[in-house]
Design brief:
Number of strands: 0
Largest sheet: none
Mean pLDDT: 89
Strand content: under 5%
Low-confidence stretches: 13-18
Shape: elongated
Radius of gyration: 19 Å
Length: about 170
């Protein structure tokens, strides 16, 4: 007769292996420069989720709300991917937005109407995505770790799509 605890442990191990399969070569620790880039990628995703949630609450513009929901959804996925890699590589990621992004969030919360929409699109839409695109390209070019490079390669087209969408929204403002 099989022991139920052994089956549970076996199932847990199998599930863990399946979740970490994309990072099969990830057992190596990241160097400090790579760890820093991974932390920056996580912070960028955290910031986009946070500002997206603010826009969902504050904006009355349907296009802005749609963009904000896409930011929350896509950057939550990006953050999840960054967390999985960080876990596999033994890197501690920030739990919340950086000081800079906390200040931006406070500024956005104080704004209303078209002023809010315009600032959100320019800052979180265009500005932050330009910075994240630059970060991801730098990571692809300079990271030593193949898994980190693969993560940047996976995220780059999504961020570029967001940037293009934000630029279109900004042109309407």
């Amino acid at each position: 007769m099989k022991h139920p605890l052994k089956a549970t442990v076996r199932g847990t191990l199998l599930a863990t292996a399946v979740l970490l399969a994309p990072f099969a070569g990830a057992a190596d620790k990241l160097g400090s420069a790579d760890a820093s880039m991974l932390k920056d990628i996580a912070e960028a995703n955290i910031a986009e989720v946070e500002t997206g949630k603010i826009a969902l609450e504050k904006s009355s513009n349907g296009e802005i709300k749609s963009f904000a929901q896409m930011m929350v959804d896509d950057h939550s996925k990006g953050l999840s991917d960054a967390k999985a890699l960080a876990s596999a590589k033994g890197v501690d990621l920030p739990a919340g937005p950086s000081v800079k992004h906390k200040a931006v969030a406070l500024e956005l919360k104080a704004l209303k109407g078209d002023t809010f929409d315009s600032r959100y699109v320019k800052q979180a839409g265009v500005g932050d995505h330009e910075a994240t695109e630059k970060l991801l390209k730098k990571t692809q070019a300079q990271a030593k770790d193949a898994d980190l490079k693969a993560l940047a390669e996976k995220m780059l087209p999504v961020v570029q799509g967001h940037l293009e969408h934000a630029q279109q929204l900004a042109a309407k403002k």
